[in-house]
Specification:
The structure is a single chain. Helices cover about 45% and strands about 15% of the residues. Strand 3 and strand 4 form a beta hairpin. The longest helix is centred in the last third of the chain and has 33 residues.
Length: about 475
């Protein structure tokens, strides 16, 4: 048995080494890609980052083009195409913001209005005192609402009555991280609050209002809000990273968060969206479209400050605007040059930053730059890798603990108590950060959760060994 234990530990060490070598070699590329090698660059990024499918629409002056790489569904070998639909994740926020700006045009609200003018029950607190948050602060993510409030989003679909209000009520009376209007701190639920205000004013569902006033005037007929699973014919299969590969994943529904992340579209419609952002409209200029054009221009205009450059669904910089998005099994990135007719909108069916990095590379290429990938490490993929490696390390530690036969030594009970305390801290760690295991289960690889509980088991086992040996020594001393 002793030899078996040694062999098992050696095998684990070798496996850990091989995993490190494989992971880092796979994520490294030495080639430089020029503007004429855009297709190769996107394909290589998808290969390195293990992105199942990615679709992209690109504007380069008077040229518009599409790029599709990989699969909408790997199991059926359905290739990604211009018809493939993806959840836009947080890129949805720009559509929501237009709804608010249109209401302001019609004098239905003022951006400086406090939220409780429309939601009287909505109350927030900063340092123990009541704090009023304005519509403008929601649009800028300067409300002070903590980023961790994403963990309180209730699971459900539109069939779960009042889910949007339930989502917003989940953060009422929350203690703010900052005084409203002082610090930019991205919190997805800000835009759910905007959606509920929209419903209070218009008397119709948020999704219907945006459809009537944004999607239909623009001619985005292939786009819809995913409030249930009734329209999935063209929707790409979602994935997440498990054991260092992209695995099929049907994430739970958080459709009370629709306004912040659940618009579904394809690159054919996103082409229309990009053109509208650049002031080019394909439909005849009706009054609704004129108002929309004004609202779009307004959504790009906000004073740029060092730490506060977010407004109306856009990160605004000198010369360009952009926004990324991540849902548990989809991701997106849009970048628009505000001086030239150059833009990129990329979508993918896996969570992570690969789509952001790829879109950024393509954006640089259409500006004449060459791009080198080098070592590309995606944080979501890395967490899966780290979780898996920790599981192997814990397995190694577990073998050592099982084989432990030496005396407890000095301070055995103190060591045991310390190990148990650390074990409890490890298990409670997500909650210390205001997250929970449901959030971890939805957003991250199962390896991460297994690693957390594996650490708890190992520490508890270590403590148990010391206690057992201490008791054995005490009994033998009495004899």
């Amino acid at each position: 048995m002793k030899k078996v234990g040694k062999a098992a530990k050696l095998a684990i060490i070798i496996l850990i080494f091989l995993c490190f070598a494989d992971y880092f070699l796979k994520h490294y590329d030495t080639k430089e890609y020029g503007p004429e090698q855009m297709d190769l660059y996107v394909e290589k990024m998808c290969e390195i980052a293990d992105v199942p499918g990615m679709s992209m629409v690109i504007f380069n002056d008077n040229q518009e083009s599409y790029l599709n790489v990989g699969y909408a569904d790997k199991s059926t070998k359905t290739e990604a195409s211009g018809d493939t639909q993806y959840e836009l994740a947080s890129a949805t926020k720009a559509f929501t913001a237009l709804g608010i700006l249109l209401l302001e045009q019609n004098d239905a609200l003022d951006r400086e209005d406090p939220v409780n003018r429309y939601l009287p029950w909505f109350a927030l607190v900063y340092k123990g005192k009541k704090a009023d948050v304005t519509i403008e602060q929601l649009l800028c993510h300067t409300s002070g609402i903590p980023a961790w409030t994403i963990s309180v989003l209730p699971v459900g679909t539109e069939n779960d009555g009042g889910l949007l209000e339930k989502t917003v009520r989940a953060v009422r009376n929350v203690e703010l991280d900052h005084l409203p209007g002082t610090v930019h701190s991205y919190a997805t639920i800000n835009y759910d609050i905007l959606a509920l205000i929209m419903e209070q004013i218009t008397g119709i569902a948020y999704e219907e209002y945006i459809k009537q006033n944004v999607l239909e005037p623009l001619g985005m007929t292939n786009s819809y809000f995913r409030v249930d699973n009734s329209k999935t014919a063209q929707l790409a299969q979602g994935y997440r990273y498990v054991l260092m590969r992209a695995a099929k994943y049907d994430a739970p529904a958080f459709y009370g968060n629709t306004a912040a992340g659940y618009l579904v579209s394809n690159t054919k419609d996103l082409r229309i969206w990009l053109k509208a952002q650049m002031g080019m409209f394909e439909a005849d200029m009706t009054e609704p479209l004129e108002k929309l054009k004004t609202a779009i221009a307004e959504s790009h205009s906000y004073p740029i400050e060092t730490k506060q450059n977010y407004w109306a669904g856009w990160n605004i910089y000198d010369g360009y605007i952009c926004h990324s998005g991540n849902n548990p099994n989809f991701s997106s990135q849009v970048i628009i040059d505000t001086d030239e007719s150059k833009a990129v909108f990329a979508v993918a069916n896996v969570c992570g930053a690969a789509v952001t990095a790829t879109a950024d590379g393509v954006y640089r290429m259409i500006h004449g730059e060459s791009v080198k990938i080098g070592l590309y490490l995606d944080m979501v993929s890395m967490l899966d890798f780290i979780g898996f490696i920790l599981c192997l390390i814990e397995l190694y530690a577990g073998i050592c603990i099982l084989k432990k036969r030496e005396n407890a030594g000095k301070h055995a009970l103190m060591k045991a108590a310390g190990a148990l305390l650390l074990a409890m801290i490890v298990v409670a760690f997500p909650y210390i950060l205001h997250y929970n295991y449901l959030t971890l289960a939805v957003w991250y690889s199962p390896c991460l959760r297994i690693a957390i509980w594996g650490a708890f088991i190992c520490l508890s086992g270590y403590a148990g060994t010391h206690i057992k040996n201490h008791i054995r020594i005490q009994r033998s001393g009495k004899k």
